[in-house]
Amino acid sequence: MDAPRDDHRLSENGNGNGCGEADGRLSKRPRPHPAPISAAEIVEEFSHNDPAVARVNNGSFGCCPASVLAAQLRWQRLFLRQPDEFYFSSLQPSLTRSRSLVLELINAAHLDEVSLVDNATTAAAIIFQHVAWSFIEGAFNPGDAVVMLHYAYGAVKQSIHAYVARAGGHVVEVPLPFPLSSPDEVVAEFRRTLGLCRAGGRRVRLAVIDHITSMPCVVIPVKELTRICREEGVDQVFVDGAHSIGNVEVDVQDIGADFYTSNLHKWLFCPPSVAFLHTRGSPAATPSLHHPVVSHEYGNGLPLESGWIGNRDYTPQLVVPAVVEFVERFEGGLEGIRRRNHEKVVEMGKMLAESWGTLLGCPPEMSCSMIMVGLPGCLGISSETDAMKLRALLRDEFKIEVPIHYQSPPKDGEAAGATDESGATVTGYARISHQVYNVEDDYCRLRDAVHKLVRDGFSCIQSTEEGIQHSSKREAAIGFQSRFPKHGGCGKFERPLGPGNGPIWPKTGLSWVRWMAHATTWSHIKRWHRLRLSLPGGLGDGTIGN
Amino acid sequence: MDRRHRDDSADNGGDANGQREKRPRPAPRAISAAEIAEEFAHHDSSVARINNGSFGSCPASVLAAQRSWQLQFLRQPDEFYFNRLQPGLFHSRALVKDIINAADVDEVALVDNATTAAAIVLQHASWAFAEGAFRKGDAVVMLHYAYGAVKKSIHAYVARAGGHVIEVPLPFPVSSNEEIVREFRKTLELGKANGRRVRLAVIDHVTSMPSVVIPVKELTRICREEGVDQVFVDAAHAIGSVEVDVQDIGADFYTSNLHKWFFCPPSVAFLYTKKCSASSCLHHPVVSHEYGNGLPLESGWIGTRDYSSQLVVPSVMEFIGRFEGGIEGIRKRNHEKVVEMGKMLAEAWGTFLGSPPEMCCSMIMVGLPGCLRVSGEKDAMKLRSFLREKFKVEVPIYYQPPKDGEVLEKDGNNCVTGYVRISHNVYNAEGDYHRLRDAVHNLVADGYKCDMLSSK
C-alpha cells in the first residue's frame, strides 16, 4: 500500500539520506536546508496555541507543531478508512520506523532495546511491575531496597509504592537540597544514601534516578550516579528522563543505565502522547519485562508487546518521521534547538531574578530548557496549595501559564534558606520553560505580573484568610477525594498534585465551593463532605441524589 | 435519568457543565440514508466493509467533536487539564452509567479498551494470590472461546501468581443456550474439585471468534449458586450490539468497548465495578497521582495522553438520537439485517449458520463451502487476505478444528471448517454481502483451495 504522504514530502525535498528512508537511518549531521525555518513560519506552526497566553510552561504538557498534527491526522484517516488493512499492513512497519529513528536519536545499540509506550508514567509502571514480580517470586528478598530521589516525580513515587512497597520492598529516598549550587551536592547525597543502605545490610535492587527532575527542576548528573551505582553493587538503574529528549543530550550507551525512558511529546514535538523505554540488552536480558496491558504479543519481547495493547489510536507513535523533518528545518537541528532554548531560558531567568531581587534555583549548567527562578518572599507562598493558587491567579488574571514550586523553609537547626534582596525567605519558585515558540515578551509579562502583585501587596496567606478575593474565578472545587487516598494510597495528606501542581474535581457551580478551593485542613474538608451529603441533590455533580 | 428515554437523549458534545436532558427532544426526522453515507464518507468506498466487529466505526460528526476536544487541549493544555478534563470525563461516565443501568457513577471507570479492563481485573486477582487472600491452586474459569488476548492476560497474571486456570469447552456450531449452560456447570464442578475455590469466572457476553451471544445472566446466577467469588463479564462487543443492564446481569465486573458498536473513536471502554469491598482494591496498572482514590479517578489520569476519545460520549449520544428508536432501534435493525444476510449467504453457498439467530447480535457466523478446504488458522488468514486484496471484501474468517472422532457438519460432501463472521452496522448495504457471496462463488467456481493461496 502507499506510504503516507509525509514520505512523499521528504523525497520532494530532495532529502535522499536520513529520515524517511526505510532502513531508518538518520543523518548524524543536519542536512543543509534551503533556509532555516523563519520566525513567521514558527508562529504559523504554533498558531493553534492560545495567542493571548504567555505560555512559559512547555515542561508540563509539551507542544506539537501544525505540520506534525497534520501528519497525525493523515495517519488517523488511514486507519479509519480501512482499519483491518491498516492493522495488517501498515501499523507494525510504521512503528518499527519510528523506533528506528528513536534508536538513532538516543544512540541505542539495537532496535530490540527500544519500545514505544504512552508516556514515562507507563514506562515506570512496566519497570516497577517487573520489580514487584521479583519480590513476589523470591528473586528479591523482602526488605531489599529501591532507591529514588526525593524530587522524583509524584506519580513515579506513587508507582514505586503501589508496586515495590506493596510487594515487600523497602523504599529509600535520597534527600536533595534546593536551591543547589553544584552537581557535587547531588552526588554527595546519593553516595551517602547508598552507603547507608550498605551499612544497614540492605541490597539495593533498583535505583530510580531522574535525568531532569520535574519540581524543582534541575539536571541530575545521571552518568556519574549510574557509575556510582555500579561501584556500589546496585542491581539495576532506571533513569526517568521524562523531560530529556529534545532538552538535553541523551546517549543511552554513554549513560549506561539498564532502563531509560523519556516523553517524546514534551520536548520532541510529538502529539500527546508517546514515550520511549530503552532497555539495555535484548529482551532475552530482561525476559520478565512486560507491558501491563497484556495482549496477543505477550512473551514476544517488550517492543512487540507495546506495539499492540488492544485497539487504540497509535498515531502519536507513528509521526516520529514527521517530527524529525520538522526539527531539521531548524539551524543545527535538535542540538541547535536545545542550545538556543537553554541559552534563552538562562537569560530570561537571570532577567527575572534580577528584576525581582531573587535568585536562580541552580547554576545555569544544572538547567536545561527550564530553570527555577525564586519569587519574592513577600508573596507569602507557604504551601503547595498556595503555589497552586498563585499559578491559577497568574493564569486567570494575567494569562500567564507557569508552574510554581513551593520550597518549605529550613527547619530549626538547618542552614538558612535562600532569601531575596529584602531579606525575606524565598519559598516559591517559578519554573520557566523556553521552547521555539516563546518570545521575550512572554517573560516580560511574567516579570510585570509579579511586580504588580508585589505592588498591590498580594500575599497567599492573606488571600486564604480573605477567602475569595484573589482566587481563580473559574477554579474548579477541590474535592476531598483527591486529597485523601483510600485503600492503597501512600497516606500522606499533602500529596504531590498534578503536573506542576494540580487537582481536579468536577465543577459544581456553587459559589461557596470556591472557598473549598482554599481549604487545607481536614476539618474544612469534612465539613464540605457533610454539606455535600446533606443537600437533596448533592452538589449537582450527579454523584448523589439523582 | 429515566432509562426508557436514555436512548433518545441528545446532548451537545463538549458541554462542560454536565447538564443533560431528562426527556428526549423530539428529533425533526430520523437520519436519512444520504446523511448516513456522509457520516461515513471517510470509509474506503470501494471496500465491502462487513467487519465492524474488529475495529468498529466512528461517524464524521463524532470525529469532528473529537477534533474540537483535541484542539482545546493543544490551545492551552494547562487550563484544559485544570478546568475541563475531569468535568468532561465525568459527563461521559454519567452518560455511560445511564446507558448500562449502573447504580452509581462511581461504579463506572473509562479505560482504553477491554484489554486494559481485563488487565485491571486480573492484576487484582494476581495480587490476591501473591498476598495470600487466594490460595495457590484456587481456580479461575474462562470460556474456551475467550478472546486470545484475555487468555494471555489470565496466564500472565493469574497462572503466574499460582492460580489454576480452567477452560469451559464450548461446542461450535451451537444450537441453544442449554449447551453452554451445561458445559459451564460441568466445568464449575471440576473447578471446585478437591476443595478448591473458584475465585473468578471470566465470561464473555459476546464471544469474538466464533461469535455467539452467551447467556451471561444465567451463568452469573449459576456462579453465585456455586460459590464462585467474583464474576467478570468480558463484553467487548456488547454495548450497542446487545442490551446491557449491569444490575440485571449481576456481575462484579463488566467491560465493553465503546469504539466497536457505540460509535466512539478509537479507543475507549468502560469498566463497571459493582460497589462492594473489592471495588476499592482495583487499580489501574499505570499508577499516577490519583492512586488510591478509586478506579474511576485513577483511570481519569494516567499521565499526559490524548483523552479526547473518552470525552465525545455526549456527541455520540446526539448521533444515536438521530436514528429511529435510538440505540435500541439501531441494534434491532442491525440484528435483523445480519440474520437476513447470513441466511442469504448460507443458502447461496449451501452451508448453514453457526448459531441460531437468537444467539447472535449484530454479527453472525456463516459456514463457508467445505471445498475451499480451510485447514488451519493460517488458511483462514490467507483466505481473509485474499478476499481483501482481490475482491476488496473485509471479513474475518474463523477456523473450526475438527475434534477426534467427531463428525463435522457437512455441506454435501465436504466438512465445513471455515466460517465468515459477518457484521452489520448502520453504514452497511446489501450490496456488501452480495459481493461476499459472489466472491466465494467465484473461488468455488475456480476450484480454489486454501493451500493454493500463497501466504502474504
Describe this structure in words.
- The complex is a heterodimer of chains A (546) and B (456).
- Chain A is α/β, with parallel strands linked by helices and 546 residues long.
- Chain A contains 20 helices and twelve strands.
- The radius of gyration of chain A is 24 Å and the shape is globular.
- With 456 residues, chain B is of the alpha/beta class.
- Chain B is built from 15 helices and 14 strands.
- Chain B has helices spanning 33-39, 52-55, 60-75, 77-100, 114-130, 148-159, 177-191, 216-225, 246-249, 295-299, 308-311, 313-320, 326-349, 377-391, 430-445; strands spanning 48-49, 108-111, 139-143, 164-168, 198-204, 230-234, 253-257, 269-273, 363-367, 393-394, 397-399, 410-411, 414-415, 418-423.
- Chain B is globular and about 60 Å long.
- Classes of the chains: A alpha/beta (546), B alpha/beta (456).
- Chains A and B meet through α4, α5, α6 and α7 of A and α3, α4, α5 and α6 of B.
Backbone shape of chain A: globular
Q: What is the CATH architecture annotation of the largest domain in chain B?
A: 3-Layer(aba) Sandwich
CATH homologous superfamily label of the largest domain in chain B: Type I PLP-dependent aspartate aminotransferase-like (Major domain)
**Average pLDDT over all residues of chain B:** 92
Number of domains of chain A: 3
Highest CATH level, the class of the largest domain in chain B: Alpha Beta
> How can the largest sheet of chain B be summarized?
7 strands, mixed
**Total count of helical runs of at least 4 residues of chain A:** 20
- SS elements, strand count of chain B: 14
Structural class of the secondary elements of chain A? alpha/beta
Region (Disordered) (chain B): 1-28
Keywords (chain B): Pyridoxal phosphate
InterPro entries (chain B): Aminotrans_V_dom, PyrdxlP-dep_Trfase, PyrdxlP-dep_Trfase_major
Protein name (chain B): Aminotransferase class V domain-containing protein
